[in-house]
Amino acid sequence: MTEVNDEGRSQASEEAVRVLNLYETREKIYTRKLKGFYRNLRRWTWIPLLGGYFLLPWINFEGRQAVWFDLPARKFHILSLTFWPQDFMLLAWLLIIAAFALFTVTVLVGRVWCGFTCPQTVWTMLFMSAEHFWEGDRNQRIKLDKAPWSANKVIRKGGKQLTWIAIALLTGFTFVGYFNPVRELVPDFFALEAHPAAVFWTLFFTFMTYMNAGFMREQVCLYMCPYARFQSVMFDRDTLVVSYDVARGEPRGARKKGADHATEGLGDCVDCSLCVQVCPTGIDIRDGLQYECISCGLCIDACDAVMDKMGYPRKLISFTTEHALERGKTQILRPRFIGYTLVLMLMAGLFVYTVANRVALDINIIRDRNLLFRQTPGGLVENIYTLRINNMDNEAHRYVIAVEGDYDYTFKGDREVFVEGGEVYSDLVRLVLDPGFLREANTEVVFTVTAVDNPELTAREESRFIGPSVRIR
């Protein structure tokens, strides 16, 4: 038999504990609610975000919903702008701009997006506010969970659950309302007349909101959010992050108010653990920067409140940088931040210019590929095209169709067409030419479509005119 020494048993035991910890049951986090600057700041960032999200579908603009992603009609209405599938590149461009904006903000101030504007954080705190209203603060919730079931516990727990369900249902209605007119969705849903797809997605987003904000909470930030995993790549020693001043706070320990803690060999940290109790992810910021930290600043509020009571200077925990803690200076303008900012400004400027100068007209010319050309009874050469005019404007227009090329083609088809706003006109048109004029068998032609009432509303599309082979004389 192989002998195993004590050191080997100790290492095996440690490895077993580490493996088992990967599958440990989630411990419920009971957060304490304290007033402070960052809690108030979060409230003022959430109010416009939540107000915009819940109110926009109910606002009408020019006879329709202000923001409406009409998937069946393949139109995205955002105030006075209407985007079509042809504008997909603008969406991709916008997503790239959003990514660079996130990178720029992260390089400068860390994960403030997570702490102040991330939907997961906003809805989680909304649910936690309802929990605090019904069940009380941290110690009251812990006591209530340990208490046996009673009428009081049923009322408090039931009230919380009903409030969560109401918030989740309102969230689901609103989200689906961006794709299905919300003024029709809500009454149809409760009258059991809504489309099955609308009912499914409303209930789906209701359930996901209820689970994510009510039960999963920090688990989404810790294990599901990819940003938590790669955000450290964008950090440097001059990035503002929530940090604990170890040199000032250690060694930590309890003491009496007014006592000279320096003579006792203690730092400013009184080891009250309030910074842990207010943290929505349950970490101890005194252990250093951790990927679980969402930079919400609540631990700063808690620590400042304790420092005020003890008569110590604030900012034992603060938004600061590693360089500031080490040498008292921070370099804001650094190559990475300047590079991100310049690229972001350039892309945003070009995007705004492109959208502002976007022509609400698109045409598409498709040659008849089954027949390169045909000869008419009179001996002329004829090419057949399918002309599609997509009026992406909200108003109707009468359009004039013109053809330009190396030859004087005869155009057969409607020279003027009327297209309603948001509609697509499609028709067959023909170009006819005497083959005696042809110098090449394949020549370029340009179709131009112009609005009669707005000459700036013009679109051009190139195609080819094909005739019989031309002999060189």
Structure description:
With 473 residues, the chain is α+β, with helices and mostly antiparallel strands. It has two domains: 27-358, no CATH class; 361-466, Immunoglobulin-like (Sandwich), CATH 2.60.40.10. Helices cover 44% and strands 19% of the residues. The protein is built from 16 helices and 16 strands. Strands 8, 9, 10, 12 and 14 form a five-stranded antiparallel beta sheet that branches. Strands 13-11-15-16 form a four-stranded antiparallel beta sheet, with no helix packed on it. It has a three-stranded antiparallel beta sheet with strand order 3-4-5, with no helix packed on it. The radius of gyration is 33 Å and the shape is elongated. Mean pLDDT is 87; it is low at 7-20.
**How would you sum up the major sheet?**
5 strands, antiparallel
Give the strand content: 15-25%
C-alpha Rg (nearest Å): 33 Å
Give the helix/strand class. Answer: alpha+beta
Number of strands: 16
Please give the alpha-carbon distance between the first and last residues. 101 Å
Shape: elongated
Q: Low-confidence parts lasting 5 or more residues at pLDDT below 50?
A: 7-20
Count of structural domains: 2
Fraction of helical residues: 40-55%
Helix tally equals 16
Brief sketch in words of this structure:
The protein is of the alpha+beta class and 473 residues long.
Main traits of this protein?
473 residues, Immunoglobulin-like, 5-stranded antiparallel β-sheet, 16 helices, 16 strands, 44% helix
